[in-house]
Amino acid sequence: MTLAKTANQSTVTVSGHEIEMHKGGSGPPLLFLHGGGGFGTFDPTSSPLADKFTVYAPSHPGFFGSARPDWLYTINDLSHFYKDMVQQLGLDDYVLVGHSVGGWIAAEMAAMDHHNIKGLVLIDAAGVRPVNGEITEVFMVSGDTRLKLAFHDPAQVPNYDSLSADPGPEGATVMHGNMEMLSRLCWRPYLHNPSLTKYLDGVKTPALVVWGKQDAIIPVECGEIYAKLLPNATLKSIDNCGHNPQMEKPEEFNAAMAAFLGEL
């Protein structure tokens, strides 16, 4: 799901391509990169993050009905796009947060150049391949199946009905387009970059790795890999929680974020 239309919505043109940007809060800058399913029921621009930070939450190019740049084929390409956006917006000494595929983008950005990233937060991030488990197939299954995989216990998710409701023809078209763009970026190799693990030890930025312990899409083993390879990382695994801790366990998620961000 994209964020609701708000007074803080604008468009930003980066590398000749226009994207939707939501902005909220006040304080130093924080960039939040959404996962393949969008923001869901979690709006970072009105969350507790916005109490201490100016939160920037863009929609990825090619998602939610936006034009698909012909040159954008990989997560690495998208990471360069966002590095250009950060420079264009003048974000400096900023906190970089990413969920799922957005976490993969964030990890790639930090590996490219972390000098102006004050803190890095990866939430159930794609990007690395587990050694023992596997990343679940999400492209060749129904939307209902993907939704079931996304949460350990839907009863814990505030406003879950808004996620499971019939999106209607227009919404279904948008969701199909999102998955098409996601598969374009992540299909081969599947939801990871084999080279990323070779670069993470150079990221000296303080990092928090947050993971739902029962994530049925990207296993917590991947969080352990990130936490091991990032030199200054802490792993916070949340029990009885799936792929979206910011939605399924908001109190524990917000507490972990507040503790980490308060020490930067």
TrEMBL record:
Q: Which Gene3D superfamilies match?
A: alpha/beta hydrolase
* InterPro entries the UniProt entry points to: AB_hydrolase_1, AB_hydrolase_fold, AB_hydrolase_sf
* Signal peptide from the UniProt entry: none
List the SUPFAM superfamilies hit by this protein, alphabetically: alpha/beta-Hydrolases (SSF53474)
Listed Pfam families: Abhydrolase_6 (PF12697)
* GO cellular component labels: membrane
Residue ranges occupied by any AB hydrolase-1 domain in the UniProt entry:
30-256
Protein name stated in the entry? AB hydrolase-1 domain-containing protein
